[in-house]
Structures are given as C-alpha cells and as structure tokens.
What we know:
It is a multi-pass membrane protein. Helices cover 80% and strands 0% of the residues. The chain has 318 residues and is an all-alpha fold.
Amino acid sequence: MSHERLRSFYPHAGFVIVYILWGINLASLKIGGREWDSLVFNGLRFASMIPILWVYTYCYYRSRSLKMQIAGKDLLLICALGVLNAVGMEALLQYALQFSNSANGAVLGRGFMPVITVLIAVLARQVRLTWRICVGIPLALFSVIVIVSGGAEGFHLGGATLRGDILLLMRSVMGAIYLIGMNRLVLKYPLPLLISFEMTAGALSLLPFVLMRADAAYFASISTTGWISLIYTSILATAVGFSLHNWSLSKLGPFKASAYGYLLPVTAAIAGYFFLYESISIFQCLGGIGVLTAMYLVQRDRAQTIKRAQRSEQTTNL
C-alpha cells in the first residue's frame, strides 16, 4: 500500500477513534450523571479546557511564526457554533430527553443528522446522490433503530413523547448546521484557534447555569468517581475528540462526517457492556452489522468518486 493511499485512511481512522471516545463518554456521562447536574457538568467540561486550549494555541502559532488573526464574520460564526454546540445540542439533548427516551434520542437526535446533512448538501450541489448513498444512509438509520429497539425502552413514536421527539429532530437539524458551518472554517484556519474559540463561547454560554446551580457544598458532595467522569469527558471526549473530529471533517466534508455518527450506538453499546455491565442483545449485534455495512457503502462511494475525479483529471492532462 502506497504512502498516499495510507494517508487517505487517516481521516476515517480519526472518526473511528472519535466515536470510540464518545461511546465510552456516554458510559462516563451515565456514571457522572448520578451526581452531577447536567448543565453544571457541561459548563465545567467546556470551561476547564479553556486555559489548556489557549496555551496550546499560543504555542502552536508562535512555533510556526504565525499571526493569530481571524476575520470578523468568521469569528462570529465560530462563536455561534460554540454556543450552538453547548446549548443548542448538548443542553437541548438533555432537556429533550425529559420528554422522550434514550432510544428516540439515538434515532431522532443523532440518526437523522446524516439524512438532513445530505439533503442540505444535495440542495447546495456539494454531494451527488448515488445508489450507495441511497442504500447506505437508510440502512444505517434502520440499523440504529434495530440497535435501540433491543433495549427495555425501545424506539417508538406517540403523543406521550411528541414534545421531546420534535426537540430531538431540532437537534439533528442543528447538528447538520454545525457540521456544514465548521467545514467552512476548518479549511481556512488552524484547528487549535477554532477549537479554542468554540470552547470559550460554549463555556460562556453555560456559565450562568454553573453560577446559579453550584456552590462549595455542591462540589464537596461530588465523589472521586464523579470527578474522574468530568476529567475524562473534558480531556478525551471534548478536547481530543472535538479536535480529531474537526480535523477529519476538514478532510472528508460534512456529509461523510455525519455518516460516521451512526457508529455511536455501536460503540456506546460496547462501552456499556464493559463499563456498566450492560448486556448486548441479538438486536444490537444485527444492528451493528447493519451499521458497519452502511459505513462501507457510504465510504466506498467516496472512494469511487475520488477515483473518477482522478481519471478525469488524467484524461484532461493528456
């Protein structure tokens, strides 16, 4: 295998690592959620990374003799994406699940994101529909439904969960907007600068909730396990996860990035088995096979597109 071909797999491997980290993070959040208020937890999660991120960003720019600057409209965009991520996606998910269930959250809050992303990308003429995409995306969505239907509280729609389900769909829309907006920025600016601005904006948007809901007595009541959960989520799931996610996003684009989101139910089920001692049902195994098959179809489609573009370029040069 040539070096260039090997390098082309790096972004794909990056997304796999990201969703392994985020799958483990779901188990971490369940453990930490027994003690932490979710808004306080996420506020501290974003805020704790700000000093580290800005020191790293400063060193990154200084070592390369670069000038730290960003256009005004792009600064507004990255800050808006930071607030969208922290409040519109993380906080909205927590709020929506009060009126729905985790199975619906996996399908509607995450599963519809690639569908919405591809619709936006097709309308913007950024993606051309092929049979692999038309088969792969519905197969992945159906497989996620199979995975979550194997639990005690499976996927279902009805009047009892309607309010939460609408909010979860809104989160998918916001997730698609986030991917497309971030894709514009990662092609123009170094990742350390973007991540630093994003985390800072997210932390500031959640700061009022931390100040209102937490005090010295509250923090003293958190156990060592609770603090370990926060540290893992802050460093590995947030700092490492978002940096690697956005680097891979810059290489593959928003549609292919959103398609990898279907790995989350698979990695979450595996993490639950090892860290929470949850069982894995036959539904989850079958759903996992379906997700991996769908991922192969979608990413194979990208490989074929690249090959066609290279042949066309070679023909033109001749």
